[in-house]
Structure formats: C-alpha cells, structure tokens
Write a structure and sequence with these properties.
- The chain is of the alpha+beta class and about 950 residues long.
- It is built from 32 helices and 22 strands.
- The strands form nine sheets. Strands 1-2-3-5-4 form a five-stranded antiparallel sheet. It has a three-stranded antiparallel sheet with strand order 20-21-22.
- Helix 18 crosses helix 31, helix 22 crosses helix 24 and helix 29 runs antiparallel to helix 30.
Length: about 950
C-alpha cells in the first residue's frame, strides 16, 4: 500500500535541532557562502520600497536559511575532514578542544574549500547551486514584497508597519530553492507562497455555497505565479461548544476533500483556530487517479487496496501510520498526530562536537507538536462521532447540489487553477537526498546517482502514479542534488503533469470531471466505515479505551441463554460474510483496522492470528466444527468462505517465498505468537489439529520457521504478542509434530537470548524495550507473557525455569492492593484489566500454571485476577484482546478452580445482554466492523462457541494447541 505522504518541514526542523542537542558543531561558512550573500545584499540595497532595517531583516533571514541548509548538506563531510586532520597530524594544539578551534580557523580560509575539490569533485558546484538558488529566491521575495506591500492591507493580521523578521524555509524547497516564507512586522504577520494561490481563492468562494460550517481557508492576495496569505494563529477552543463545532467542521472537510480529490491534508496543512479547522495549504486537489499494478497477493487484496486508496483515506485527513524508513509509525494526519501518541524517531546527530573527534550518531527525538488540534489534550474518541456526522451532513448537501445541477458550475472555476500532485512520498525523497549528499556520493557521484535512479525506478513499479520514465527520474535526481524536493503540478483542465526540468507525465484529462465522476460512483458506506475505523490509527496501544461510558447490559436476563448464544454467534459470522471483499480468482479479504509494528492502519487483512487472515481461518473452521453437531447454527456460505481464506493465505505466503527466492530483500516479519511468523506457524498447526488441512500444514510451518532466526535477530520487542518470546511454544509444538529437534533447539536459543536481555529490578526481572522502556507487566507485552513462555520451555527442554519465576515475581510486585489490580506502567498509577495488559492475561496464565504445578499462590492470583476483571474489566467493548470476552475466559477459569467472583449463568447473561443491547462493539473504533480474532468481533464469536458446555475448542488466549 502506498506510504503516507508527509510534509518535510518537521524533518528539517528536527535535523537542525538534533545537531544543536549534540553540541555546537559550527565550523564557519563565511568564506563559502559570503560572496553570494554579498551579492544578495547588493541586490536588496538597490530596491526601493524597503527601509534599511527591512533589507537587513531579509538578509538576516536568508543568511540563517542558507547556513542551515548548507550545514545539513555537508555536516558529514566536515565531520570526516576534522577527523582526517587529527589522524594526519595536521592539528597540533594541546588538547581536543583547542585542536577543534585550530581546525575551525582553517575552515575559515578559502583554501580549505578549494582543497575539498579533489576528494569531493561534485560537492562545490552543487553547494554553490544550492546557495545561489536560496539567495535568488530571497531576492525575488524582497522585490515582490516591496512591490505588493500596499495590497496586503486586505489580509487580516498583515503587517502595515515595518518588517522586522523573516523566516525562510517554512516547508519544503522546490524549483530553485523556493520555500514558503513567514514575514513578521511590528504589527502583524503574513505568509508568502512561491506558487499560484488561485486554487485557494476558488476554494474560499466554494465554501460560501455549502451552508453553515466552521471550515475556513486563509484570505489570499493572488499574483502571477505566487501570492500572499493570511497568517492563521493557533488557538485552542474555549469550551465544549467550540470543540463540537471544530470536529463537525473536520467532518465537513473530509466530505469536501473526498469530492475535490484532495490528497495531502496532513497535520501541518491544517491549523485549529478555535472552532475553525483552517486548511492553510490546499494545493493538492484533483489528484490524478492511478491504478496499482497487480501485487501477486490475489485479486481480493488488490481490489481492497484500491478501495482504500480511493476512499476518504486518500485525503490524508484521517489517522494513519507511516511505513517509510525514519518515519515508521508516525501519524501526520490532520485529524491525528496526537500528543503522547507518536513514536520517538531516530535522527542523525553530531556527537562529541567541540572536539577534534566528532562523530555521527543518532538520537531518539520527540516529534514537535503541530497546530492541528483544538485542545491541549484532544480526546478524539469523544468527538469522533461528530466528524462522522459532519461528513454525512456535507455529503448530503453536496448530493443535493449535484441533484439540482448546481455542483458542476461551482467546480468549473477550478479548471485553470494550478494544483500539485504528490507522486512520491516526501520522506522517500528526503532519504534519497541524504544518500546523494553522503561523503561517499560526493566523492564518487555517478554510482550514487545511478543507485538513486534505480530506487526511483523500482518505486514506480510499486507506487501507483510514480513516474518510471528515465528522463523524469534523472531530472528528479538533479533536483535532489541541487537541494530541492521534486514537484509535479498541472491544471485540472489539462491533467498532464509538469515535473522537474519541464518533464511531462500522465495523460491529458479533465481532472474536475474525473473527480466528480468518482465521487458520484463512491460507496458512501465504505467511506463512512473507513472513517469510523481510522480512529484506531490515532493511538499507539491496542488496549486504549475511549473516554466513553461503559456498555450497559440492560436488564440482565438469564432465560433462553442457549438460543441467544447461538443467535449472537450466527449474527457475527453473517456480518463476517457480508464484510468480505471477494476477488475474481477465489481470494478474499476484509478492509479493517490492522495492527502491525508501525501501529494501526485501515487496510486489507494481514497474515497473522491477531487480527489477520490466519485468525479468520481459525474462526471459520471452529464455527463449522461446532455447527456439525448442532452447537451452532448452520451457515452454508462458510465452507466456501473458509476455502477462499485458505487460498488467500497460500497465495500470499507463496508470493512472499517467491520474492525471497528472486533475491528481493524483504524486511523481516516479527517473530511473535500473535503478530508475526510464529503466529502463522501456530495457526497451521492448529488448523492441522482441526483436520481442515493435512500434512501441507507441516510443510508450510517448517518453511515459515526457517525465517525465524533472522526475525529473532531483528526483534526488539521480546514479548509474546510480536516478539521472540511468542515463538517459543509454537516451535516446541512444531518440534513435537515433526519429530525434528532443531525447532526445540531454536526455542531453547530464544530462552538463552531472553535471559541475556532480562533486566533485574526490585521484585524480579522484566524486559524493557525501545517501545516500552518501562519494563511492562502483563501477558501480551510484558513479564507474565514472557515468563509463561519460559516456564513452558523449562518444562519441555529444561530451560531457564528460575527466570520464569523471577518474571512472575516481578508481575506480582506490580499488584496494587488499594486498586485490587496490577499496575499498567504505560498509565501513571492506574491498573489494567484486559488480556493484553492487566488482570485478564495474568489470570489466564495463573490458571495455566495452577493446572500444571498446582499451589495456593496460583489459585490466589487467579482469584484476584478474576475479581479485577469482573469489577473493572467488563463493559468497555466485547473483544478478546481488551474487552469482555477476554475477561470472560479469566473468570470462567476461576470458576473451574472454585474461585470465581460471579456464577457462570449471571456472567453469560451479562455478556449476552450487552451484545443484544449495544450491538457487538470491537474495541477502539466502536462503530467500525472488525472481523479479527483478537481485536475484532471474530474473537467474540469464537468465545460464544466456547460457552457451550460440550465445546472442546482450545483457547486462543495462549498460543498453544490445548
């Protein structure tokens, strides 16, 4: 699927901040950039309409911009050169700091830069192009401001007095060093944009015809090829009424951008101004549609990808996690990018600056907050229904305008407005730029250019719309070498795109007509479902619960429990049937929130047990098994659906295997029992036990297990859900099924590795990870799950049993007597009650250990866990992972041990009543259908099957076959 399209402004800011954090690596650049800046000063001096202080403000801003850009380009070269000077003995001062100052004095001489021409023959010409472009762009800005300043009086908040400060580089650099610029005056601010603002003006006019809405765009002054825009200040809403108006306006924007083919509405392109969501950059409208090539993963997958990519997800407004290197897991959507819900990103920094031994390193950096939220701690779950309501409301209004023949005339004014198409992810360009400015590339430019061109060509095979023409690619590489991000634009009337160096790509077409036709053919239900589901992507953790009231079961009725159970299970399976996306080749998938290592994304099912196709195969097999003896309603369509799911799994696994045989380097999948390779191994073994597949299961499980060593080597989560601990028990079961000891030996090696990774703390041991440095407890991500796997390993192979005991002891140290639950170290001072985090999973492991070794301590832990689940874990949603049906299992296991806090009949009646009163609720996105086993309603159906007293289906809440 196509990468999220992100703006580069945050990256530029972070790079410079990261360098400053590491120390002052500040060799002087005057002899390099001074002549061009002197020429700019002379040019500014010749302008009329600018006071001397204003010329100075422009020159100061330009100087800062040029210095920062040059430093970003050649810092690695300079780090290399200072070390070379030290090693060669050219620096003779008494200590490292003095030798640094000695080297800096040499850098101040023109001869230093002249001498770099030999080792880096391409560098100086490219640097001087960057400097010239930036200075020329600054001079052009000054001329335009001097000429246009009297026109700016029409813009709210524009300066009428003297210009005091100028900020260049407020965004990406395009076409000769041109960037957005913020101009600060003594009494206001104004934004300069080096592009046509005609589309902004037409969009502003369109808003006046759409009825009452808080949507806004900045006021603009349009000029030929550039313009001036009102500066929008960020303001939080004053009260709940303003918050509700803001989020309804966001829904309006979603509906309007769906019509207009908007595709780049990320967090930096929208500013919250009280109740007004203001789109401050609307250049990416009427984006040309491009169809993806067949992926090889089946027609259903390709169809689902196209449905998602042409839905409201395309706008960029809805939450979604980036997958590109360096931005993995980052949500930069206009509605998302929540404080506290972004991963730290790793950026290059200069370490040991101020000495003669600086070196390049990395640091974990917090993303700076954007201005897109209307409150300091936004609670999207509370207001998401208003976004959906606003979407429905404006969609109805647009349909009304279309039905009356008024819509197309309103859109006709866009036909000749220049618009931009983002054909490649900006972060991909940023990574290529870093490569092209690496010292090795500056030393030998041709191979680096060839590699960049090859990567862009490969991208064109995988990213719909990305150009593959070698002439265009060469022009893109040229622009990256000159410090710019390549850009493609057109007018909707023409459709064909103009790219770097005047290159052309794409067909001629009427993009307005195309957008209207696609909007008329839209599936509003799909758009609405995708928008509902996208809420989950705003949050990092699978156990987050919206700030909403608990689900009420209504009047708890204990009558007719068995027919009600059967009806509820059948209803869920029919919903699974109805939600399927079927391919012409017999494959099938679902569009749903999917959890992967980058976070949540709305996409086709992945290959795993947690929320993916393997979990669906287990569910469908289980249901048909229970229907055969009459413990579930017979649904004829399930057998062919199961066959389609299995076909899809086979096609996908075979495609990945073929790509590996072709030598394609694939990112290792995680090794976990629910997300990752071990989940696939486990599911094939379970399906074999069910009898739905034969010895093929062992062949496929072996082939998958062969991938685990590389996956384990790359793993940094260690846990049961997605980490190496999750592979232990599936490997032990594979060893038993095949009689091959190598799989048990691999499991034992994981135990050894986990022993080395364990951190001893008061009370026991835990496994801090980059994502969870706290050292969590719990089953899915923490000490209880890892301890369970190690305990099973010890029983099977004589592994580190003491380490398992220490893990269980650490979990017990997290028990809070006052709250009667186990602390969730993600949340300051609060306990958790779910399977993934807290009492649910802790109770299930306690029951397993009680059955295997007995003992009062496990019975006591199970009793406390079940009590915690019953008093605080029921009523948030119905899922296995973080809802009622996961807690049901812990309580039922406690009942079997004689320590349940509630009788079985009342427990079942409560859960069935909640399903009947509220409808099935799948966790994070309450109104979105998710068929998955753990986070979705598939697992609810699975547990409803297991409620029958004669059911022998194994639990899926521990990754085993029992």
């Amino acid at each position: 699927m196509r990468d999220r399209l992100l703006g580069l402004q945050n990256l530029s800011v972070l790079l410079s901040e990261a360098e400053r954090m590491a120390g002052e690596f500040d060799p002087p650049l005057d002899s390099l950039i001074g002549p061009a800046l002197a020429d700019l000063e002379a040019r500014l001096g010749s302008l009329t309409g600018l006071a001397p202080a204003e010329r100075g403000a422009i020159l100061t801003g330009a100087t800062l911009s040029v210095e920062e850009e040059v430093r970003r380009k050649i810092t690695r070269v300079l780090v290399l050169e200072v070390n070379a000077a030290r090693l060669s003995g050219r620096l003779t001062a008494a200590n490292p700091a003095a030798r640094w100052e000695e080297w800096k004095r040499s850098v101040a001489e023109p001869a230093f830069w002249h001498d770099l021409a030999a080792p880096y023959p391409a560098m100086m010409a490219r640097l001087m192009t960057v400097v010239r472009h930036r200075c020329a762009a600054a001079g052009r800005l000054a001329e335009r401001f001097a000429e246009d300043r009297s026109l700016l009086a029409t813009l709210p908040g524009a300066p009428s007095g003297a210009l005091e400060r100028v900020e260049f580089g407020a965004g990406d650099s395009h076409r000769g060093g041109q960037t957005v610029v913020v101009l600060h005056g003594e009494d206001g601010r104004v934004i300069y944009k080096p592009r046509s603002l005609a589309v902004d003006a037409v969009l502003a006019d369109l808003l006046t015809h759409l009825g009452v809405s808080t949507m806004r765009v900045p006021a603009v002054v349009t000029r030929q090829g550039y313009g001036w825009a009102e500066h929008i200040g960020h303001r939080h809403c004053a009260d709940d009424g303003e918050l509700r108006a803001f989020y309804r306006g966001m829904g309006h924007w979603l509906a309007l951008m769906r019509l207009l083919g908007g595709s780049d509405l990320h967090a930096e392109n929208l500013i919250a101004a009280g109740p007004h969501p203001v789109v401050v950059d609307c250049e990416s409208l009427f984006t040309p549609h491009a169809t993806a090539r067949p992926s090889g993963y089946g027609h259903a997958f390709d169809l689902a990808v196209d449905l998602v990519n042409t839905s409201v997800m395309r706008t960029g407004l809805l939450p979604g996690r980036g997958v590109a290197l360096g931005w993995r897991g980052v949500d930069m959507s206009a509605a998302g990018a929540l404080p506290g819900q972004q991963p730290r990103i790793e950026l290059p920094v200069v370490l040991d600056a101020g000495t003669d031994s600086p070196r390049m390193g990395t640091e974990q950096v917090e993303l700076p907050l954007a201005a897109n939220h209307p409150s300091p701690e936004p609670v999207l779950g509370r207001y998401w229904d208003l976004i959906i309501a606003g979407f429905d409301e404006l969609d109805d209004r647009l349909a009304e305008l279309d039905g009356s023949g008024k819509l197309e005339p309103l859109l006709a004014a866009f036909a000749d407005c220049p618009v931009r198409a983002v054909l490649r992810a900006t972060e991909a360009y940023a990574e290529l730029s870093r490569m092209l400015w690496h010292p090795a590339a500056l030393h030998d430019e041709a191979p680096a250019r060839a590699k960049a061109a090859a990567l862009l060509a490969k991208m064109s095979e995988n990213v719909p719309g990305a150009p593959g023409d070698p002439v265009i690619i060469a022009a893109e590489v040229d622009e990256l070498c000159h410090g710019d991000i390549p850009m493609f634009d057109t007018t909707p009337r023409v459709g064909m795109l103009t790219g770097p160096a005047g290159t052309r790509c794409g067909p001629e077409s009427d993009l307005v007509a195309d957008a209207v036709a696609r909007w008329r053919a839209r599936d509003h239900g799909l758009d609405r479902g995708v928008a509902q589901a996208a809420l989950v992507s705003a949050y990092l953790n699978e156990g987050w619960m919206p700030d909403l009231e608990q689900l009420s079961p209504g009047l708890v009725r204990t009558d007719r429990l068995e027919p009600r159970r059967r009806a509820a299970a059948a209803g869920l399976l029919k919903a699974v049937l109805d939600g399927a996306v079927r391919g012409a080749d017999g494959t099938v998938t679902w569009i749903t929130p999917v959890l992967n290592l980058t976070g949540w994304a709305v996409q086709p099912l992945s290959l795993d047990v947690y929320g993916g196709a393997h979990g669906l195969a287990i569910l469908l097999t289980a249901y048909t098994r229970e229907a055969t003896p009459g413990r579930a309603e017979k649904i004829d369509e399930l057998d062919p659906l199961l066959a389609a799911v299995l076909r899809t799994i086979r096609v996908t696994e075979d495609r990945d295997a073929a790509r590996r045989r072709e030598g394609m380097r694939l990112r290792p999948e995680p090794p976990g029992a629910y997300l990752g390779i071990a989940s696939q191994v486990w599911s094939w073994l379970l399906l074999r036990r069910f009898g739905v597949v034969g010895e093929e299961a062992l062949t496929r499980a072996r082939a998958l297990a062969e991938l685990l060593p590389e996956s384990i080597e790359a793993d940094d989560s260690y846990d049961l859900l997605s980490g190496m601990a999750g592979a232990i028990v599936p490997l032990l079961r594979l060893s038993e099924a095949t009689g091959e000891t190598r799989w048990a030996e691999l499991a034992r090696s994981i135990g050894t590795r986990l022993a080395g990774l364990a951190e001893h703390r008061a009370g026991g041991v835990c496994w801090p990870s980059p994502r969870f440095p706290q050292g969590l407890g719990g089953l899915a991500h923490g000490a209880t799950g890892i301890g369970w796997a190690l305990a099973r390993l010890a029983e099977s192979t004589g592994g580190p049993g003491d380490l398992a005991e220490a893990a269980f002891a650490y979990e017990e140290s997290l028990y809070d007597q006052g709250q009667r639950g186990w602390l969730d170290l993600r949340n300051d001072g609060f306990t958790a009650k779910a399977w993934c985090h807290g009492a649910g999973g802790i109770g299930i492991v306690a029951a397993d250990r009680l059955a295997r070794e007995g003992g009062a301590r496990w019975r006591d832990r199970l009793a406390r866990a079940a009590a915690s689940c019953w008093t605080g874990g029921i009523g948030w949603n119905h899922t296995l992972c973080h809802g009622d049906l996961g807690c049901w299992e812990a309580i039922e296991l406690a009942r079997a041990a004689g320590v349940a806090p509630v009788e079985r009949e009342r427990l079942d009646a409560h859960l069935l009543g909640s399903l009947e009163v509220n409808g099935p609720v799948s966790g994070l996105a309450r109104d979105a259908f998710a068929p998955g086993l753990m986070p979705g309603l598939g697992g609810v159906a699975y547990q409803l099957l297991r409620m029958h007293p004669s059911c022998e289906l194994p639990s899926v809440l521990l990754p085993d076959l029992e």
